[in-house]
Specification:
Elements (H helix, E strand, L loop, with lengths): L2 E4 L5 H6 L4 E4 L4 H25 L9 E6 L2 E6 L3 E7 L2 E6 L3 E4 L3 H7 L5 E5 L2 E4 L5 E3 L2 E4 L2 E4 L2 H11 L17
Parallel strand pairs: 1-2
Antiparallel strand pairs: 3-4, 5-6, 5-9, 6-7, 8-9, 10-11, 11-12
Length: 178
């Protein structure tokens, strides 16, 4: 939406032929400016309401994304990703079928991929929490891959992966007085 402001009234007709939303002639009073801004805001709101009514289906969050790999675009499903390794301006995405190398930063993927589905175990790695088979010392085990866990991320990894799923022996021992 475009609102023109000018001191020349003879351009008004040409402006409306170009689908200008409103035309403010200088000197512009504050009331006239507010009226035009409110009119634009109401029209914008009306457009978005009619769009949401015309498509009653709620937009489903995508479970995939595309990356450019070599000279083609590859579609990757979240559920296929085992882990992602960052190497400065490149990332290697390991899936159950193969690995993809693309010009992206790990930081960009961390912002895009949702937590707790994907968790960070190291500054250079992002892992799919559902694919974790175990944690051995300072390593995450996914299939035959061993991904390091850094000291900075260890507590976060354990809290996310193990926290409410760790079975403990809750037997209490009653000692009777002798």
């Amino acid at each position: 939406m475009v609102i023109l402001t000018t001191a020349y009234p003879n351009y008004a007709l040409e402006g409306f032929q170009l689908n200008v939303f409103d035309y403010l002639l200088k000197p512009i009073t504050f009331d006239r400016f507010v009226q035009s801004a409110n009119k634009a805001k109401d029209y914008h709101r009306l457009l978005h309401q009619s769009m949401s009514v015309s498509s009653p289906k709620a937009e489903v969050e995508a479970d995939y994304f595309f990356i450019k790999c070599d000279l083609k675009y590859e579609k990757l499903f979240f559920e296929d990703i085992l882990y992602i390794e960052g190497m400065q301006n490149y990332v290697t995405i390991f899936t159950s079928k193969r690995k993809y190398i693309t010009l992206l930063t790990l930081k960009a993927l961390v912002q895009y991929l949702s937590s707790p589905t994907f968790i960070r175990g190291h500054k250079s790695y992002l892992v799919s929490s559902s694919k974790i088979k175990g944690i051995d010392g300072n390593e995450i085990i996914i299939q035959s891959h061993r991904i390091p866990i850094s000291r900075n991320y260890r507590d976060q990894v354990l809290a996310t992966v193990v926290s409410n799923r760790l079975l403990k022996n809750n037997r209490s021992v009653l000692v009777r007085g002798l």
